[in-house]
Specification:
Layout: H1 3-16, H2 27-32, H3 37-66, H4 75-97, H5 99-105, H6 116-127, H7 132-162, H8 172-185, H9 192-196
């Protein structure tokens, strides 16, 4: 395992395999919290933290407990329980130390529990047979990719809400069209990351 391969994993998580813009996981907070840059950034940092912690906990559980004992079928249930416990921890920390962010995120903070991007990363780490270190790098890259999507889309939403779209496009339709165009832009990174280090 070389440093180059770890960088490729991180860059792939950010650009090529972006869980939000390429795999369409984590759409609920993507659409719900991206109206303001501050809230989008706060939610993204919380998601990165949960992704890293969830990977650090679920990878050993799967590798040393579930798989050796023939209980791989419990993967999804166990991973969701672990993620839910970690989100409760993050929610408590944010509530205690960052009350304005806690109030701004509102209902979306507990929704990290059901954020498919977090569950998707933990399952992808196992499916791709990453080592523990590779899994952590993948979780970090995927979290930064989520943050990039949130921050970019926050800027795009700011522009679309200050413009005057046709009446039939106002509100959710223009938001979805903007998300689709932003998603299409990430298809341009196919093949770039792998060839970047040749």
């Amino acid at each position: 395992m070389s440093f180059k391969s770890l960088i490729i994993i991180v860059m792939s998580g950010i650009l090529v395999n972006n869980y939000t813009l390429r795999q369409f996981l984590g759409i609920c907070p993507f659409l719900g919290v991206s109206k303001e840059l501050k809230n989008a950034t706060g939610m993204s940092i919380a998601v990165i933290f949960v992704m890293l912690l969830a990977t650090a906990v679920t990878w050993p559980i799967q590798t040393h407990l579930l798989t050796p004992n023939g209980m791989g079928y419990l993967q999804t249930v166990v991973f969701i329980l672990v993620i839910a416990a970690l989100v409760q921890l993050v929610e408590t920390i944010i509530k205690k130390y960052m009350p304005p962010l806690y109030n701004a995120l509102g209902v979306y903070l507990p929704l990290i529990t059901t954020n498919c991007a977090v569950l998707g990363v933990t399952i992808a780490n196992i499916d791709k047979q990453y080592t523990f270190v590779q899994a952590l790098f993948n979780a970090f890259g995927s979290g930064v990719g989520f943050m990039l999507a949130m921050v970019l889309f926050s800027g795009v939403r700011g522009q679309t809400e200050s413009s005057e779209p046709p009446e039939s496009f106002k509100g959710l339709p223009i938001t979805l069209v903007s998300a689709a165009i932003l998603s299409l832009s990430f298809f341009g990174f196919n093949g770039v990351v792998e060839n970047l280090f040749r």
